[in-house]
């Protein structure tokens, strides 16, 4: 295949994949007493070239997510971002915070008090309030970042005090599970935590977003209460690193 026809095939694949995903989101939302409009659908664009991201945007994507600060800042000028929100979803190092504050709509991956404080500091400096999600290591895995479930409520109460930061909800990546029932248990655990923390009505904390569900599990995530899914490879195809 020529490069041009390969691109065109990929454009068509993206269109087809988005259509399939939309249908599945709608079904899962209905199964949980909601509609597709209640689910925020993020296209995860890490490693994807700008022309394919722009195609997804042309197909109606209004929220994109990138993992790395450098990659996000490099691609940003080439993207058709009018009306499109962009969130950071990967681990953020403290020394990169100054570069990213003000460049994204939300940081979904706040995984330490230290990084939360730095986001606050840099936001105040720029006269901003940065919306964030708190990442929870729901499976208590050593390989993953995020707060341990048992410490999360207390840490959120502490982070709520930080000027320049507004906590909007929780984010998680569950462990890889062989059985759907096991996976759903993790989803249910964090959903319950999300509801419980919301019920505390902590000042400066609005538990409105539960970010969970990726290519392999977004339907289950929606059925167990997610309202914000992050889908990459199911839209753009496998990532080649
Ligand atoms: C890469 C990534 C995703 C998307 O993963 P897919 O399995 O390709 O859908 C979602 N969330 C985070 C935090 C990621 O790093």
Summarize the structure.
With 241 residues, the chain is α/β, with parallel strands linked by helices.
In terms of topology, how is this protein built?
Elements: H1 3-31, E1 40-44, H2 50-58, E2 63-66, H3 69-75, E3 85-88, H4 97-100, E4 106-110, H5 113-125, E5 130-136, H6 152-159, E6 165-172, H7 180-199, E7 205-211, H8 218-223, E8 228-231, H9 233-236
Parallel strand pairs: 1-2, 1-8, 2-3, 3-4, 4-5, 5-6, 6-7
The structure holds pyridoxal-5'-phosphate.
Q: Distance N terminus to C terminus?
A: 22 Å
Mean pLDDT: 97
Approximate helicity band:
40-55%
Count the domains: 1
Low-confidence stretches: none
Q: Report the biggest beta sheet as strand number plus sense, adding barrel if it closes.
A: 8 strands, parallel
CATH topology: TIM Barrel
Question: Would you kindly provide a written description of the structure presented here, covering whatever features stand out?
Answer:
By secondary structure, this protein is α/β, with parallel strands linked by helices. The protein has a single domain (3-236), classed as Alanine racemase (TIM Barrel). Helix content is 41%, strand content 18%. The protein has 9 helices and 8 strands. The chain has helices spanning 3-31, 50-58, 69-75, 97-100, 113-125, 152-159, 180-199, 218-223, 233-236, and strands at 40-44, 63-66, 85-88, 106-110, 130-136, 165-172, 205-211, 228-231. An 8-stranded parallel β-sheet has the order 7-6-5-4-3-2-1-8. Helix 6 links the parallel strand 5 and strand 6 (165-172). The longest helix is centred in the N-terminal third of the chain and has 29 residues, at 3-31. The two termini are 22 Å apart. Bound molecules: pyridoxal-5'-phosphate. Residues 44, 46, 67, 89-90, 173, 214-216, 230-234 line the site of pyridoxal-5'-phosphate.
């Amino acid at each position: 295949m020529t490069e041009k026809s390969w691109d065109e095939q990929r454009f068509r694949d993206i269109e087809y994949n988005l259509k399939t995903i939309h249908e599945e989101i709608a079904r899962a939302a209905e199964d949980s007493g909601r509609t597709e409009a209640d689910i925020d659908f993020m296209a995860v664009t890490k490693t994807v070239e700008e022309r394919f991201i722009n195609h997804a945007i042309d197909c109606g994507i209004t929220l994109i997510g990138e993992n790395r600060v450098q990659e996000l800042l490099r691609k940003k000028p080439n993207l058709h971002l009018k009306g499109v929100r962009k969130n950071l979803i990967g681990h953020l190092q403290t020394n990169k915070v100054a570069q990213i504050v003000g460049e994204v709509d939300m940081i979904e991956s706040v995984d330490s008090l230290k990084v939360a404080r730095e986001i606050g500091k840099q936001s105040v400096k720029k006269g901003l309030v940065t919306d964030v999600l708190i990442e929870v290591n729901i499976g208590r895995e050593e390989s993953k970042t995020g707060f341990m479930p048992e410490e999360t409520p207390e840490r959120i109460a502490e982070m709520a005090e930080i000027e320049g930061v507004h906590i909007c909800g929780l984010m998680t990546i569950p462990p890889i599970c062989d059985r759907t029932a096991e996976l759903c248990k993790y989803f249910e655990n964090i959903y319950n935590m999300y509801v419980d923390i919301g019920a505390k009505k902590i000042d400066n904390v609005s538990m409105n977003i539960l970010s969970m569900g990726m290519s392999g599990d977004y339907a289950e995530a929606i059925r167990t209460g997610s309202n914000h899914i992050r889908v990459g490879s199911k839209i753009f195809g496998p990532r080649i690193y």
